[in-house]
Design a protein that fits this description.
The complex is a heterodimer of chains A (316) and B (346). Chain A is an all-alpha fold. Chain A has helices at residues 2-29, 35-40, 46-56, 62-75, 87-122, 127-141, 144-158, 174-208, 211-218, 223-254, 256-261, 267-276, 280-308. With 346 residues, chain B is α/β, with parallel strands linked by helices. Among the domains of chain B are: 107-171, no CATH class; 249-344, no CATH class. In chain B, helix 4 (110-121) crosses helix 5 (126-139) and helix 4 runs parallel beside helix 7 (158-170). In chain B, 45% of the residues are buried.
């Protein structure tokens, strides 16, 4: 186990390195990407521009610029090109909102998917199952910003049940926090519930055809016990793996649309703003931070999987 | 108790699919007494396993059509509510499946899997249950049962898994044990041990055992009575002695003839039964063995009933139009019982 974790850590460092290099290079080649022009401001004189280039080191070779940025990132002194603000401080400021979003929404989408998946699998092809199937397709296909916009329009603007976006720290007011998070949680969860419930449903159907489930029936166990103790434990594995990736994605600032729509001021919204400004340092930091979480969560899920499925041997 | 432990009467099981109904079991009737070991023999796909599963109500589904009657200790199981079936499964009828490794839950330790059944049917506490499980594992010759309790199925051999399955089946002291090809996946020495254990269950504990097999060697070893299935129908049944020494149905002759024997000079070629069994449910009218039977005659276009064998006990019957004299004459091929190759018939 320890060796496995160590190996995963090493490989995650490799992944982080590659991702950071690619992100860095992408912003060197996209048009209008020159940060000096932005920092110097519109209509700056060639002399000012030259001074900016020299001061920020944009005339250095690329690998020097990259090393320089990495050094600043890992020493925590990296600042954004627009506004000269410390990026790590900004990231830290956005974390509570993003973590709130990811944790709350995961709870909702996992429990919703389990309930709906189990209900649909009870009567395959029945009315409930087919209805759930249609709803799942709809929820997966409708873009999350449409769901969010519609929810905001009806539930915050037309009828003011929920606040019109914004974030209240949980330390400041629990109910204020809850009030501001419910709509983003639900809107983010809708698509995930649709996908996860279908995956769970087919996983349950597959497991129920296994010989060991027949054995459980032959033991004279109740349907409930068979479902909970024999079927679900195996059927949950695929959705837990999915969850690891999606949770990491949201924590890593992947819920850009929802965060921006609800003005949560989280990591995702910070990413969106930085992309809009072509501000490379925050983008680099957020991408690397997101990558780190994806690697971390997939490793955690693999370890969990090995516990749930004793046949799985972790590849050492 | 009066009457047999298990009575199956005119059982029919059909599975509906997109291409219509597949009739896996056409007409199976059998009886089994306490302390009796009855073997069901037949080729793959003849309905042996479906019969076994249906007895326990394990083929129930919206797409399955089940007709006839299955009575356990006199009470009907086919239309019994799930709660009654649950009470019978385990303490009444227990089953050991063909594939021991996949029949155990791969993500649970084997001890708790056995304990689960005891806990479902008794009021024993955890410690007593554990004691009983370890005791039943020990009885089946599982070495170091205290340690095996913690093993996962994939850590055990097939033979060990099969013993776990039997220990599980026996854990609630059932009155009837169904063993569905339970030794097929095992090597012969383990097979012999398990068969002996099954036999002693009948003799020492008065348990009825329904053993499903396609291995006539196994039948000769342990059976009291034999039921021969072909294409979802009982074609012959009788005591083990009558089946081996006085078989009535050409299909049985074929089965016996295709068995290699050490006490005879080795044949150039084993006798076989020509052709393959019809797909379930596709046979037309007439005797279901008609297409493969070298002795068929015009009357066989009509399906023969399962008729008592003249001069034999009540539980000996066969489904064939040939007269007893014809049977005695036709079944001898080169001095042994067998199904004559079609070309040799005049």
């Amino acid at each position: 186990m320890a060796r496995y974790i160590a190996r995963r850590l090493v490989s995650s460092l490799v992944v982080l390195f590659l991702v950071s290099v690619f992100t860095f290079l992408i912003f060197q080649v996209i048009p209008n990407g020159s940060p000096a022009l932005r920092i110097a401001g519109r209509g700056a004189s060639p002399a000012t521009l030259a001074a900016v280039v020299k001061e920020w080191g944009f005339n250095q070779p690329l690998y020097v610029q990259y090393a320089d940025m990495m050094e600043k990132i890992f020493t925590g002194s990296v600042v954004s090109y627009s506004g000269n603000i410390n990026v790590l401080g900004q990231l830290r400021a956005g974390l509570p909102a993003t973590v709130s979003l990811a944790v709350g929404a995961s709870v909702i989408w996992l429990s919703g998917a389990i309930v709906i998946g189990v209900i649909s699998s009870r009567r395959i092809g029945g009315t409930v199952d087919r209805l759930m199937g249609v709803l799942a397709s709809v929820s997966i296909s409708v873009p999350v910003y449409v769901i969010g916009a519609v929810a905001l329009y009806f539930l915050a603007y037309k009828v003011s049940i929920f606040p019109n976006g914004g974030y209240v720290p949980i330390s400041q007011s629990f109910f204020g926090w809850l009030d501001h998070m419910i709509l983003p949680w639900l809107c983010l969860s809708v698509g995930f519930i649709g996908l996860y419930s279908r995956v769970l449903r087919s996983s349950i159907i597959e497991t129920e055809g296994e010989d060991f489930v027949r054995t459980a029936k032959a033991k004279g166990l109740t349907k409930r016990r068979i479902l909970v103790h024999h079927v679900l434990r195996t059927s949950m594995i695929p959705i837990i793996s999915l969850w690891g990736l999606d949770f990491a994605g949201v924590i890593g600032g992947g819920a850009i649309l929802i965060e921006t729509l609800f003005n949560l001021q989280g990591v995702g919204q910070y990413a969106a703003e930085s992309i809009g400004l072509l501000d490379i340092p925050p983008i680099m930091v957020i991408v690397m931070y997101g990558t780190f979480f994806v690697v971390l969560l997939t490793t955690a899920v693999d370890i969990l999987h090995a516990f749930a499925e004793p046949r799985v041997r972790l590849q050492v | 108790m009066t009457g047999p432990l298990l009575e199956v009467e005119e059982l029919r099981v059909g599975f509906s699919s997109d291409r219509g109904v597949v009739q896996a079991v056409e007409d199976v009737s059998l009886e089994l007494d306490e302390g009796e070991l009855v073997c069901i023999v037949g080729e793959s796909g003849c309905g042996k396993s479906v019969t076994a599963l249906t007895i326990m109500g394990l083929t129930r589904s919206p797409t399955t059509r089940i007709e006839g009657s299955v009575r356990y200790e006199g009470s009907e199981l086919l239309d019994a509510p799930e709660s009654q079936l649950r009470a019978v499964r385990g303490p009444g009828i227990a089953i050991v499946f063909q594939e021991p490794v996949t029949s155990l839950n791969p993500v649970q330790r084997v001890g708790p899997q056995i304990a689960e059944q005891i806990r479902a049917h008794t009021t024993l506490d955890k410690a007593e249950t554990r004691q009983q499980v370890i005791e039943s594992m020990r009885r089946l010759g599982i070495p170091q049962p205290e340690q095996r309790w913690y093993a996962y199925p994939h850590e055990l051999s097939g033979g060990m898994c099969q013993r776990v399955m039997i220990a599980m089946a026996m854990s609630c002291s059932p009155r009837l044990l169904i063993a569905d090809e339970c030794t097929t996946a095992l090597d012969v020495t383990i097979q012999a041990q398990i068969l002996l254990q099954l036999r002693s269950l009948c003799d020492d504990h008065g348990i009825g055992v329904l053993l499903i097999t396609h291995d006539l060697g196994v039948v000769a070893e342990v059976a009291d009575r034999v039921v021969v299935l072909y294409n979802g129908r009982v074609v012959e049944q009788g005591t083990v002695r009558s089946i081996f020494e006085d078989p009535q149905h050409p299909y049985t002759w074929g089965l016996l003839g295709s068995m290699p024997r050490l006490d005879r000079p080795r044949r150039e070629q084993l006798l076989t039964i020509p052709g393959a069994p019809p797909e379930p449910g596709t046979a037309g009218g007439g005797c279901s063995f008609l297409a493969r039977c070298p002795h068929a005659f015009d009357r066989c276009l009509e399906e023969p009933p399962l008729a008592p064998v003249p001069g034999a006990s009540a539980r000996e019957s066969a489904r064939c139009w040939l007269t007893p004299d014809e049977r005695r004459h036709l079944r001898m091929v080169g001095g042994d019982i067998g199904l004559a190759p079609a070309g040799d018939i005049g």
